[in-house]
Amino acid sequence: PLCYGVAASFSRRHMPQVTPLVTASASQVGSTLWLLLPALWTWPTHAVAWSTWAAMGALGIVCSGVAYILFFRIISIAGAAKALTVTFAVPVFALLYGVSLLGENISGAALASASIIIAGIVLATGLWTPKARA
């Protein structure tokens, strides 16, 4: 969370001329290099199946790569504060995926928490602004 906040604010303030594609690509290459040594250290002793490589490639390119391009595009258009609200919704979607895909039950506490998160997103993005009392 700290890195999301710092990266979003930094890129909006100090790199407004850099396109979202370049920013997203650089962040992915940087994280790959950062994780290279731990990956080599923990490399499995057996051969990795091609389906595993394909799944990792799909997750890395399609999920993370496209998501980062969209994230940095939102930063360039709407600003860092509004772009960061996308990350607030992750627990709400995790709850929805758990219910719809895994058949999990929703507790009252989970619904209350999701409601608080959605209210925070609505307030942070300016979709609703409370009227000041006179």
Notable features of this structure?
134 residues; mainly alpha; 78% helix
Beta-strand residue percentage: under 5%
Major β-sheet annotation? none
The number of strands is: 0
Helix content: over 70%
Low-confidence stretches: none
Envelope shape: flat
Class of secondary structure makeup: mainly alpha
Head-to-tail CA distance between termini: 37 Å
H/E element order: HHHHHH
Q: State the helix count.
A: 6
Indicate the radius of gyration in whole angstroms.
19 Å
Instruction: Give the overall pLDDT as a whole number.
Output: 86
Could you walk me through the main structural features you see in this protein, from its secondary elements to its overall organization?
This protein has about 130 residues and is mostly helical. The protein is built from 6 helices and no strands. Helix 1 (about 1-15) runs antiparallel to helix 4 (about 80-90), helix 2 packs antiparallel against helix 3 (about 50-80) and helix 3 (about 50-80) crosses helix 4 (about 80-90). The two termini are about 35 Å apart. The mean pLDDT is about 85.
Task: Summarize the entry for a quick read.
The chain is mostly helical and 134 residues long. It has helices at residues 2-14, 20-41, 50-78, 80-88, 90-102, 108-125.
Q: How are the secondary structure elements laid out?
A:
Layout: H1 2-14, H2 20-41, H3 50-78, H4 80-88, H5 90-102, H6 108-125
Helix pairs in contact: 1-4, 2-3, 3-4, 4-6
